[in-house]
Write a structure and sequence with these properties.
- It is a single chain.
- The protein folds into two domains: 1-36; 41-201, AOC barrel-like, CATH 2.40.480.
- It has helices at residues 8-13, 19-36, 200-207; strands at residues 41-55, 65-76, 81-90, 104-108, 111-118, 123-136, 141-153, 161-175, 181-197.
- The protein is α+β, with helices and mostly antiparallel strands.
- The protein starts with 7 loop residues before the first helix and ends with a helix.
- The protein is built from three helices and nine strands, in the order ααβββββββββα.
- Helix content is 15%, strand content 52%.
- It has an eight-stranded antiparallel beta barrel with strand order 1-2-3-5-6-7-8-9.
Length: 208
Amino acid sequence: MKCFTSTATAATVFPGCGRGAKLLATAALMLTLGAATAYAHDGSVKMTYSGTNENSIINLQQPDTTTSEDSFAGEGTLGSFTVHNIRAQANTPSASSTCSGANQLFFIEPAGGSVFRFQDGSLLELNLTQGEDCVDFSTGLAHCTLTFQVTGGTGRFKHASGTLTMTETAGVVLSDALGNPVWFFGTGEFTGTVSGVARDEDRREDRQ
């Protein structure tokens, strides 16, 4: 994002313009302040997304699990993004007090990670700390809740920290010749807090 570095620029380019020069200088100051804080963030976030999920060639070596990959895109508090998740999902269902209907099965997700890529090229990295899926065979949908710890990143997220919760509704798009689901859609949102996000001017100072 292009920034104005000095309000004196407008007055220098337009000498002797009187009131017009003052207005230009004021406008330049407003642009400067807006650009300087464009990437500043220290609080709650909400980011909606949609995309697809499939089995992964990556193996997280978690016992009795299958590793899957999400490829999502969306937008929200921190800007437009793509996000790629790697998730180990249990093959054997577990007991649950919140997912115990006649047509429901509950599965945990013991490990995983996530990387967001934003339009400015900055990356935000997450580590999965808790995940659970409730599969409802009466609707053909799965409802998933995952908790991630923010571990940093690159660019404006170099010193980021916080916690994000991903909620997802997923359904089957395609099954193989044996009737096994192999490709899924997913929609939902990430909510939580992200702190330590650098402003654009801070990033320039780090590179000097």
